[in-house]
Design goal:
Blueprint lengths: L1 H16 L16 E5 L5 H11 L11 E15 L9 E13 L14 E6 L4 E11 L5 H30 L2
Parallel strand pairs: 1-2
Antiparallel strand pairs: 2-3, 3-5, 4-5
């Protein structure tokens, strides 16, 4: 009995070590290669999030840098009703980001993201669209907690769209 437990422990440790679990590597972004311009329709809170990610020199124009023009950012909130309740059971947030990348390499890209992300490219004017959607439960007894959850989810969906934008920007260098 004692030998079977020891043998089982040895086999289990061999199986676990053979899985080759590696550390997750985050995409590295060279912040000095890009600069952004924004249209009037882009909200200030989205601009501030971009500034946090790309640093203070994200708007400095340079011919050696790749120009990213963010033409619009829309964040829509939908209530999903179900059952006999007069309140929404879930809240759905949808974000849509339109941007263009001015670089000769960017015309070669044509991708489609899976899950709840999607990215489309219009070859005529090089405009790309990133969509993201999140749903969360709206059943809260406290209305203040519901408002805070809504703000938190809006922040999360903005972060999600920015991560997708960083992924697209990194694909330029490939």
């Amino acid at each position: 009995m004692r030998y079977t437990k020891g043998l089982l422990l040895i086999l289990l440790s061999i199986v676990i070590t053979s899985c080759n679990l590696n550390e997750y590597q985050k995409l590295q972004l060279d912040k000095n290669k890009y600069y952004f311009s924004f249209d009037q329709e882009v909200p200030n809170n989205f601009k501030l999030k971009i500034k946090k990610v790309f640093g203070d020199n994200f708007e400095k124009v340079d011919n050696k840098k790749i120009h990213i023009n963010v033409s619009s950012f829309d964040l829509n909130k939908y209530d999903v009703y179900s059952g006999t309740s007069l309140r929404a059971m879930e809240i759905e947030l949808k974000a849509k980001l339109n941007f263009s990348i001015d670089d000769s390499k960017s015309m070669k890209m044509d991708h489609s993201m899976h899950s709840n992300h999607s990215m489309h490219m219009n070859h005529s004017n090089n405009i790309k669209t990133i969509n993201s959607m999140k749903r969360f439960s709206a059943i809260e007894l406290n209305p203040l907690a519901e408002n805070q959850m809504s703000k938190f989810m809006e922040d999360e969906i903005m972060n999600d769209v920015i991560e997708q934008l960083i992924l697209e920007v990194n694909l330029i260098d490939l």
